[in-house]
Design brief:
Elements (H helix, E strand, L loop, with lengths): L27 H13 L4 H13 L12 H8 L4 H11 L6 H13 L14 H6 L1 H6 L1 H8 L25
């Protein structure tokens, strides 16, 4: 007979977090109405709020001209890698960057070299920027430290300038 222990079943389930916990404040009336709507849909309040956010994302337009919504652009903007998310957002929707992200994005742009200095990115530049992603990822923590003023920029690589002993795979 197998001995059962308290807590998680032995060997079962994943330890990966598939959701994030977000604390929100709701006034009592909105909380009550949320509970009623959740009951109607036979959901928990948390599940109802998640569903409602998904619905709202399909209505919020990121671009007034193209009418692209958060949902329609999700595949383009989302990545499991934080560095890649920032670069994608900087390339596609720089106006949505927070101040701290703007500092980081400017630092990365400066390190991409003379091809990018003095001009705005457009989607045509994304292939060039993405060519540098392995280096940006490798030095991501350093980029964040420099942008936050916690380290000197001398710790960063010059991405637009070939480094000694490194072959640039992106050029013929």
């Amino acid at each position: 007979m197998e001995k059962r222990t308290r807590g998680r079943p032995r060997g079962g389930g994943s330890k990966l977090n598939r959701t994030e916990t977000v604390t929100i404040r709701l006034d009592p009336k909105l909380r009550y109405l949320t509970e009623l709507a959740a009951r109607k849909q036979r959901r928990t309040a948390s599940s109802f709020i998640e569903w409602a956010i998904e619905q709202a994302l399909s209505q919020v337009e990121l671009d007034d001209k193209t009418h692209d919504t958060v949902t329609s652009e999700a595949g383009l903007l989302w990545d499991t890698d934080e560095a890649e998310r920032l670069v994608k957002l900087g390339l596609c929707y720089p106006a949505l960057l927070t101040y701290d992200e703007q500092l980081l994005w400017k630092l990365i742009r400066e390190r991409l070299g003379p091809d990018f200095l003095g001009k705005e990115f457009d989607l045509g530049d994304s292939a060039i920027a993405m060519r540098h992603m392995p280096t940006v990822r490798a030095h991501w923590e350093d980029f964040k430290k420099v942008a936050a003023g916690e380290a000197d920029a001398s710790i960063l690589p010059a991405l637009g300038v070939p480094q000694k002993g490194v072959v640039d795979q992106g050029k013929p």
